[in-house]
Amino acid sequence: MNWEQLPLGPLQTNCYIISNREKECLVIDPGSEGNKLIQHLQKRGLKPMAVLLTHAHFDHIGAVDDVRNEYKIPVYIHRLEKKWLGNPAKNGSNAFLGQSIAAEDADHLIDEETILNAGSFNCKVLETPGHSPGSISFFFEESGFVVSGDALFAGSIGRTDLPEGNHRQLIKSIHDKLLNLPENTVVLPGHGQDTTIGAEMDSNPFLNGF
Questions:
Q1: CB–CB of 54/148 below 8 Å?
Q2: Domain for residue 210, yes or no?
Q3: Could you tell me which residues are beta bridge partners of residue 189?
Q4: Are 155 and 86 in contact (CB under 8 A)?
Q5: Which of 16, 74, 147, 192 has the highest Cβ tally under 10 A?
Q6: Is 145 part of any domain?
Q7: What does residue 13 show for φ and ψ, rounded to 5 degrees?
Q8: How many domains does the chain have?
Q9: What are the C-alpha distances in Å from 192 to residues 31, 41, 69?
Q10: Domain with 66 in it
Q11: What is the distance between the alpha carbons of residues 37 and 143, in angstroms, rounded to a whole number?
């Protein structure tokens, strides 16, 4: 299984394309620039099977409907943010952009840690709240990587000064759910470069001394 990082939009939010040998793929956090993303998928000859969302902030959802409508595929999100997709006040677009970004309701709500099956893909859903109440991470155990959204970054962590953010909860999520993964697990964050669990355990200044 392969992963590809495609930064999109004004905040360069990382969209991840997870593909297999059969050219099927998952699209995780299509944040913006729907036409660019679709053209990229077409150029690669990929067939999307589902859209997965780590959370529903505006910079992660801007191209959700573009991809869903183009490929007629389902969208997955945690149930705690089921109303955020269509609510610019909740997803932050009104406050940060001065314009409304919204998407239709998700097709499937995730309400617990589980194995998510979409097409021929499966991954473990980890609940990692703190940056937002419904933040989740997707762990592809056999391939050795986790898509962490805005929970854990290379040398940093997600901000918690947004509505319903909780710093203590985020630190607990990272320690209990992410740092318990194998140290060689590649971390694919919502912004910036990839890292590993081991590297963040050793040098992330926000996690030392917890």
A1: yes
A2: no
A3: 149
A4: no
A5: 147
A6: yes
A7: -70, 135
A8: 1
A9: 14, 21, 28
A10: 2-203
A11: 24
DSSP 8-state symbol, 148: E
What confidence tens digit (pLDDT) does each residue in 16-72 have? 999 999 999 999 999 999 999 999 999 999 999 999 999 999 999 999 999 999 999
Euclidean distance between CA atoms 192 and 12, whole angstroms: 8
In whole angstroms, give the CA distance from residue 110 to residue 108.
Answer: 7
Token couple for 11: 């905040």
Which CATH number is 153's domain given? 3.60.15.10
Whether 53 is in a domain gets the answer: yes
d(CA 39, CA 44): 9
Domain assignment present for residue 208? The answer is no
Each residue's pLDDT tens digit, 150-189: 999 999 999 999 989 999 999 999 999 999 999 999 999 9
The residue ranges of DSSP E strands in the chain, in sequence order, are: 2-8, 13-19, 24-28, 47-52, 75-78, 108-110, 115-118, 121-127, 136-140, 145-149, 152-153, 156-157, 186-189, 195-196
| Residue owning tokens 């495609």 | 6
62 neighbors 102 (Cβ within 8 angstroms): no
Rounded to two decimals, the pTM is 0.97
